[in-house]
Write a structure and sequence with these properties.
about 350 residues, alpha/beta, Rossmann fold, 7-stranded parallel sheet, 3-stranded mixed sheet, oxidoreductase
Length: about 350
């Protein structure tokens, strides 16, 4: 990483990371500690997520990481105590695909985001705020269709579909509600900053499908979209719906964490929406890598007619940030799959 004296918040400063037990968030914490920052991670239950503190205490020494409880992020004042004395706030916490009803699924994300922003705005020491948005705040995958997306692109299509009249059912409705929650949550963040003019800089990160190393497989299992890879490994048995996930972009979770840290500390990254997309993939690309990495295991046959993600996104800025951490650029799909399978390949 670049010279610490020029960072927007100096090394050794305290950074709040919400949802610290999550797949992306745990890597954000890891990269922050690696870069010399102190971290206060929020979780819904300190009892259930005590392993997070144990993991980072063992890796970086006691006193660098602390765990605090925020049971309901949508409750008024949820983050007010957590933000005390912090110089930065990275808000990753979000419910993932939990509701078919937009009246339930969307407000909790919007209110949680606003609560984090309000808490940060009320703490004069906070100079930087990074919001984990989503690729779905900008676009939804559309196989074999050529289109472009940039910082001005919003997923209004998903918002319209999410708020359509009942019945509230079906996997597509659930996906639309999630996508709309991320779209409207991020829009609310930019509106807040524009109107309230807080004393911090806001950047947002829009990750696509995150894969890669799971820090604590015994506690996290195969979390988030790493679960997709494990399902493919097991020929989608019991998880047949995942077979129909469309081609899209992947990104290595450690690159995602680097983009977050860069958005927090690099002074020239201000007021930006960062497309955290590496390269497009489909299931057959991953099957080919599985066969190469694990030649003694039999995998399912290629899936016909998958199509390709042909979209063009403005992901160069995020990759530039990754390079500032001494990386050559986005981590390859093969290396990412190798990292992802560490948690289970040896046990099968």
């Amino acid at each position: 990483m670049g010279s610490t004296t020029k960072n927007a918040i100096p090394e050794g400063s305290l950074v709040v990371v919400s949802g610290a037990n999550g797949f992306i968030a745990s890597h954000v914490v890891d990269q922050l500690l690696l870069a010399g920052y102190r971290v206060r991670g929020t979780v819904r239950s300190a009892e259930k997520s005590g392993w997070v503190a144990d993991y980072f205490d063992e890796k970086y020494g006691v006193g660098k990481f602390e765990l605090v409880e925020v049971p309901e992020m949508a409750a008024a004042g949820a983050f007010d105590k957590a933000v005390k004395g912090a110089s930065g706030f990275i808000h990753t916490a979000t419910p993932v695909m939990v509701s078919y009803d937009p009246n339930e699924g969307i407000p909790i994300v919007v209110e949680g985001t606003l609560n984090a922003l309000k808490a940060a705005a009320g703490e004069p020491s906070v100079k930087r705020f990074v919001l984990t948005s989503s690729s779905t705040a900008a676009i939804s995958p559309k196989p074999d269709l050529e289109f472009s997306a940039d910082e001005s692109t919003w997923n209004e299509e998903a918002v319209k579909a999410a708020w359509a009249p009942p019945p509230y059912k079906g996997e597509q409705r659930k996906l639309d509600v999630y996508s709309a929650s991320k779209t409207q949550g991020e829009q609310a963040a930019w509106k807040f900053v524009k109107e309230q003019k807080p004393g911090f800089v806001l950047n947002t990160v829009l990750p696509n499908c995150n894969m890669g190393l799971v820090l604590s497989p015994e506690n996290q299992g195969a979390p988030s979209t790493v679960g997709w890879l494990k399902a493919l490994w097991n020929e989608f048995k019991g998880q047949e719906k995942l077979k129909f996930n469309p081609p899209q972009y992947y990104v290595n979770v450690q690159d995602t964490a680097r983009v977050h840290v860069g958005a927090l500390v690099f002074p020239d990254v201000t007021g930006e929406r960062l497309y955290d997309f590496a390269y497009p993939f489909n299931w057959n690309d991953i099957l080919a890598i599985y066969r190469k990495l694990y030649p003694n295991r039999k995998f399912m046959d290629d899936i016909p007619d998958l199509g390709r993600d042909l979209s063009k996104v403005t992901n160069g800025r995020a990759e530039e940030i990754v390079k500032r951490f001494g990386r050559p650029g986005w981590t390859s799909l093969e290396d990412t799959i190798r990292d992802s399978t560490q948690g289970w390949a040896g046990a099968m």
